[in-house]
From TrEMBL:
This is HTH tetR-type domain-containing protein. Keywords: DNA-binding, Transcription, Transcription regulation. InterPro entries: Homeodomain-like_sf, HTH_TetR, Tet_transcr_reg_TetR-rel_C_sf. SUPFAM superfamilies: Homeodomain-like (SSF46689), Tetracyclin repressor-like, C-terminal domain (SSF48498). Residues 19-79 form the HTH tetR-type domain. The lineage of its organism: Bacteria, Bacillati, Actinomycetota, Actinomycetes, Micromonosporales. Residues 42-61 bind DNA.
Length: 226
């Protein structure tokens, strides 16, 4: 092996270790934020729970704000990969909206989702970088949902009603409320999320057999019913 190859191998191992450390710290921070909130988050406790020293944490994150912003970004990335991706794969806007409702309910079974809810409540009405980051994510999602609602209404798939922006706000409010109240209560969380948004959008109820197939579609492989 040449010197260049050895050097490249060392850099890859270092990058892998850094990625593992960062992932572990983000997961521990998300758990801490969901339990204690931002104001009461202790970085030393985060590092200990992740299995690292406080120095390792500060090597990757400048301070608590930097860590919380990283957690918010990480949650957005995972939500987009697990929920947004499913919606993007749908060819009809109504199916995309249903996919968001059911997918978000399933995503709320994870502790990281509770961290985002806790932060959003904590920073409501405050001008803080973490609060602004969350508001930007919510605004972006609301705009996407409004576009889907407008497209569905144009095609005649849903009846006329309030402006798409108002409908999108109501849609997200319903989806978030179901996710909070029924977090982890599978399969009722996904079933009731779809029923709620169907009523909001003016759609007919879904048949029980179709509803059961939808439950399997949103579950991760290790949670699929046997």
């Amino acid at each position: 092996m040449t010197t260049a190859e050895i050097s490249g191998s060392v850099r890859r191992r270092q990058a892998d270790r850094r990625a593992r450390t960062r992932s572990a710290l983000l997961e521990a921070a998300a758990r801490g934020l969901s339990t204690y909130g931002y104001a009461n988050l202790v970085l030393e406790r985060v590092a200990n729970e992740a299995g690292y020293t406080r120095g390792a944490l500060y090597h990757l994150f400048a301070n608590k704000e930097d860590l919380a912003l990283a957690v918010v970004g990480w949650i957005e990335e995972t939500w987009n990969a697990e929920v947004g991706r499913r919606a993007d794969q749908e060819t009809h806007p109504v199916d995309a909206l249903i996919a968001i409702a059911r997918g978000h309910a399933a995503y709320c079974r994870r502790e990281m989702a509770r961290a985002m809810v806790t932060l959003r409540v904590e920073f409501t009405g405050q001008d803080h970088p973490v609060g602004r980051a969350i508001a930007t994510i919510v605004d972006r999602l609301a705009a996407s949902c409004a576009a889907l609602i407008a497209a569905a209404r144009s095609s005649g798939a849903i009846p006329p009603g309030p402006p798409p922006a108002a409908m999108a706000s109501a849609f997200l409010g319903v989806v978030e409320a179901v996710g909070i109240e029924l977090a982890g209560q599978a399969p009722f969380d996904t079933q009731l999320a779809e029923r709620a948004v169907r009523g909001l959008l003016g759609l007919p109820p879904v048949a029980p057999a179709v509803e059961a197939r939808g439950d399997a579609a949103v579950l991760p492989p290790d949670e699929e019913p046997t």
